[in-house]
Every structure is written in C-alpha cells, then in structure tokens.
Design goal:
Shape: globular
Number of helices: 4
Structural class: alpha+beta
Strand order of the largest sheet: 9-8-7-4-12-15
Order of helices and strands: HEEEEEEEEEEEEEEEHEHH
Helix content: 10-25%
Radius of gyration: 26 Å
Number of domains: 1
CATH architecture: Sandwich
CATH topology: Immunoglobulin-like
Strand content: 25-35%
Distance between the termini: 75 Å
Largest sheet: 6 strands, antiparallel
Number of strands: 16
C-alpha cells in the first residue's frame, strides 16, 4: 500500500509539473514544399519520402526547461550523428509580442509579425538559440526520443520573456554542412544531393493549416511566413456558430409563412365510414 501511494503521488507531481503551452498537428504527406519538391536520389535519402514530413509540433514546460517536440513520419540517421538524427534541419521562429524583427537575413525571409527568438535544430551539436536583437547565439541540446520525434531543450534561464502566449513559425529543411545557412538546396531538377523543384526557399515542410491562405503552399509561394498561435487553434470558425440560430430562424419563418413540413413520420388518420366507430 505504501509503494502504491508513493507511485500515485509521484505521478500527480509529474502531471502537475508538466504544462502544455502549444500543440498543433500538421498535414501528413505534405513534404513537397510549395507543391512539387522531389527528394535527392542518393540512397541516404531512402525511402525518398517522409524524412521531412512534419506531423506534429508541441511545446511543454517542466521544471526549468521548455521542451519543443517535433514529430516526423520517419527519422533516419545514416551518418550516426550523436543526436540520433541527421537529415532534419529545422528553424523555429518565436513571436513574443511586438519586439523583434520581421526579416531573417541569412535566407532573405520575411514574416507577418516580428520574431524575438529563433531556434535552430540541427545535428552535430549545431542546435542553438539566437536572439533577434543582438544576434547572440547560445548552444542548446536536441535529441531523438524515438524514430519519429526530436526533442529540443531550452533552459528558461536564458530567455527573458513570458512564454505563455508565444506564437511559432516552424520551417523544415534538410541539413547540409556546405549549404546556405546549413540548408540543402532546391534545384530546378533533383540530383544525388539536391532537391528538385521550383521554389526559392529550402523548406520541404512547414507547420501550417491544410486549407486557406495560411496553408503551406501559399506561404512558400508568397514568401511571407505566418506564425501559429494557441488562440488560432482553439477558436472555432464563427460561421459554424451562426448556422444553428440561422437554422431555427429559417424553420420558424417558413412555418409562419404557411409552409408545411411533412417528413413522413406520421401516418394519415383512417377515414371512418360508420357512425360511432
């Protein structure tokens, strides 16, 4: 009984300490950039799909750390990088409010809102946190939790802003030690070490809604990247809320106008031919 109580208390403490700050699923099978990206042909990129397919992004807090969990359809490590992954190279831009800049100079990228921090997730101890104001770069830790998820550890003592209302732009590319900003290039036609496709930026997948003007293809074509927030994920579409009262009003109006609804649920009364029956 004592050990059972200790187990329950430990579980409760852990559940109370782990705080979910942000979570969003990304469309599966969209590792095609703006729509037509093809993988490099070298055998290291087998199965030539899924390696850069971001499926889920989650931010949690526990103790003195923020955890950033990036889930993919598949993770391989052909060159045995110590973090457990080799191909994935991710930039996480963080909007904390009105502070920061809207432009990322290394890749000539623009954002609708300013970012204050950018986290680089890359193999060979290259993961880091960069401040947009003074370009200070601090090494941070990243590792694979399993064959689908990479976790990034951000110590809270190196940031100076509240993390509860952060917004995120998550951009996924391929690591290349010789590429611009360490990203593998996208050429008009794929080759052994290059992606093929007509797009300016080296991103194969981004965290984005599946439909609308905020979808991945639209952002990569326009070149203006959009932050995702917890509020945008939790708010239902307003027009869905209008359908219920509009439906009741339509039925009421039609009934007042003399329109009869016959759904076939009532059987017609039998005609009585005999008196008293």
């Amino acid at each position: 009984m004592v050990w059972f109580l200790i187990f329950i208390l430990t579980f409760l403490v852990r559940a109370d300490g782990l705080q979910n700050l942000f979570e969003m699923a990304d469309r599966s099978g969209d590792d095609f950039g703006a729509g037509k990206i093809t993988y490099p042909t070298h055998q290291a990129f087998a199965p030539y799909r899924d390696l850069f397919d971001l499926t889920h992004f989650k931010v949690t807090k526990e103790g003195e750390y923020l955890f950033f969990d990036l889930s993919f359809s598949q993770i391989t490590n052909p060159w045995k990088a110590p973090e457990g992954f080799f191909h994935q190279h991710v930039l996480i831009f963080i909007n904390t409010g009105s502070e920061g800049i809207n432009y990322y100079a290394p890749l000539l990228m623009s954002f609708k809102k300013p970012y204050r921090y950018v986290i680089r997730v890359a193999p060979w101890s290259l993961s880091s946190l960069r401040f947009s104001d003074n370009e200070t770069i601090i090494p941070i830790r990243a590792e694979t939790l399993n064959q689908r998820t990479i976790r990034v550890y951000l110590p809270l003592n190196i940031i100076n802003a509240s993390y509860n209302d952060w917004e995120y732009a998550v951009l996924v590319g391929a690591y290349d030690p010789f590429g611009l900003d360490l990203f593998r290039e996208v050429a008009p036609k794929n080759s052994a070490w290059e992606f093929g496709g007509e797009q300016k930026w080296p991103f194969i997948d981004i965290l984005a809604p599946s439909f609308g003007n905020r979808r991945q293809e639209q952002q990569l074509q326009s070149g203006i990247f959009i932050f995702q927030s917890s509020q945008s994920q939790s708010k239902p579409s307003w027009w869905w809320l209008l359908l219920i009262p509009m439906g009741f009003f339509s039925v009421f109006f039609l009934k007042r106008s003399g329109f009869k609804f016959d759904l076939g649920l009532k059987k017609p009364r039998s005609e009585h031919n005999k008196k008293g029956t």
